[in-house]
């Protein structure tokens, strides 16, 4: 069996190319996987962009097939939870980093990394959502676990035009929240309002260094940016607010003080999607299958093929991609 996929190599220099991959080569490099999945759709996330361009040491084993997300049908399995013919979703667990990933027509994956496809969902829909949308749901669930309700006030979403941000805006709006969307791209204002944003905030308002305590505004924040933007968002939180931090597009630093946490009782919640338990994953995906606006999904999706992925990786790092990139592997 031969199939197409993207292969990243580092000898003698870094390269990314679409290649014909043999079943023997897949078995050699993904031997730890006990479930063979025929991938129908994948997606390009920010982390995939880093891997495809080698801009950050995401890949830790070489050669590597990138792709941290995949959805498809099981063709071989030794696990009774995922018999042949099962539709499954994969997010994270080092796939595309230390284990061959899903930007290829086939992937060998560990059963414990997979979750069953929700009954109300298909592979295409699942990968429009992808890790970005699943992370957005984890953020919303974390905030609501802290007691957040729509009547508490405005919720800020930073990096709102990106993958996580787009889904977060849609989810919050569909749950009845008043959403303020922060973005550096004025051209996306109509798009974000279509997703449910009540107000657009230019990211420059949050980008400059500010005081540790500022005028109270936000009942909650979903932050995909990090650095100074996150620090300012925290400083503008109302008493008792919670902040779900899940991204670092502007940097890993956090130039703030303890003042918002001890004087305003602000809570900073770290949200990880890569190693989340199956229980958390299934809860998030079940909620997505029931509540995410399908019209909004269509509006935020751009579909590409395998041959477009390498260029798309550079584009997503440059901040040129709006919403979600869906990779169709069926052709």
Structural class: alpha/beta
**SSE string, helices as H and strands as E:** EEHEHEEEEHEHEHEHEHEHEHHEHE
Number of strands: 15
Distance between the termini: 16 Å
Largest β sheet strand count, sense and barrel closure:
7 strands, mixed
Low-confidence stretches: none
The average pLDDT is 96
Number of helices: 11
Shape: globular
Query: Rounded to an integer, what's the Rg over CA atoms?
Result: 20 Å
The percent range for helix content is: 25-40%
Tell me the strand percentage band.
25-35%
Please characterize this protein's 3D structure.
The structure is a single chain. The chain has 331 residues and is an alpha/beta fold. It is built from eleven helices and 15 strands. The protein has helices spanning 23-29, 46-53, 123-145, 163-174, 189-195, 204-207, 227-235, 259-263, 278-291, 294-300, 309-317, and strands at 2-9, 15-22, 35-44, 69-77, 87-91, 106-109, 114-116, 155-157, 179-183, 199-202, 218-223, 237-245, 267-270, 301-305, 324-328. Helix 2 crosses helix 11 (309-317), helix 3 crosses helix 4 (163-174) and helix 3 (123-145) crosses helix 9. The two termini are 16 Å apart. The mean pLDDT is 96.
Concise summary:
This protein is of the alpha/beta class and 331 residues long. The protein is built from 11 helices and 15 strands. Strands 3, 4, 5, 6, 7, 14 and 15 form a 7-stranded mixed beta sheet that branches. A 6-stranded parallel beta sheet has the order 10-9-8-11-12-13, with helices on both faces.
């Amino acid at each position: 069996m031969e199939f197409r996929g993207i292969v990243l190599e580092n000898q003698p220099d870094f390269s990314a190319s679409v290649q014909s991959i043999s079943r023997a080569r897949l078995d050699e490099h993904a031997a730890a996987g006990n479930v063979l999945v025929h991938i129908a759709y994948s997606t390009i996330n920010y982390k995939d962009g880093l891997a495809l361009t080698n801009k950050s040491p995401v890949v830790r084993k070489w050669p590597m097939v990138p792709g941290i997300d995949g959805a498809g049908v099981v063709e071989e399995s030794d696990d009774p939870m995922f018999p042949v013919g099962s539709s499954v979703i994969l997010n994270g667990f080092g796939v595309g980093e230390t284990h061959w990933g899903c930007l290829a027509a086939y992937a060998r994956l560990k059963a414990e990394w997979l979750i069953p496809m929700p009954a109300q969902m298909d592979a295409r829909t699942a990968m429009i959502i992808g890790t970005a949308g699943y992370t957005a749901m984890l953020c919303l669930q974390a905030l609501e676990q802290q007691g957040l309700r729509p009547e508490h006030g405005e919720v800020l979403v930073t990096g709102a035009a990106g993958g996580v941000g787009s889904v977060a805006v849609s989810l919050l709006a569909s749950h009845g929240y008043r959403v303020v969307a922060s973005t550096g791209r004025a051209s996306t204002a109509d798009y974000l309002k279509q997703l449910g944003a009540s107000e657009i905030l230019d990211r420059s308002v949050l980008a400059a260094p500010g005081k540790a305590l500022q005028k109270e505004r936000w009942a909650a924040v979903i932050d995909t940016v990090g650095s100074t933007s996150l620090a300012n968002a925290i400083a503008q939180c109302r008493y008792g607010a919670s902040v779900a931090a899940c991204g670092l597009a502007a940097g890993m630093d956090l130039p703030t003080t303890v003042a918002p946490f001890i004087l305003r009782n602000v809570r900073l919640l770290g949200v990880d999607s890569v190693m989340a338990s199956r229980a958390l994953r299934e809860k998030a995906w079940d909620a997505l299958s029931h509540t995410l606006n399908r019209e909004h999904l269509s509006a935020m999706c751009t579909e590409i093929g395998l041959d477009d992925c390498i260029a798309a990786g550079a584009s997503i790092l440059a901040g040129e991609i709006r919403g979600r990139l869906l990779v169709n592997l069926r052709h």
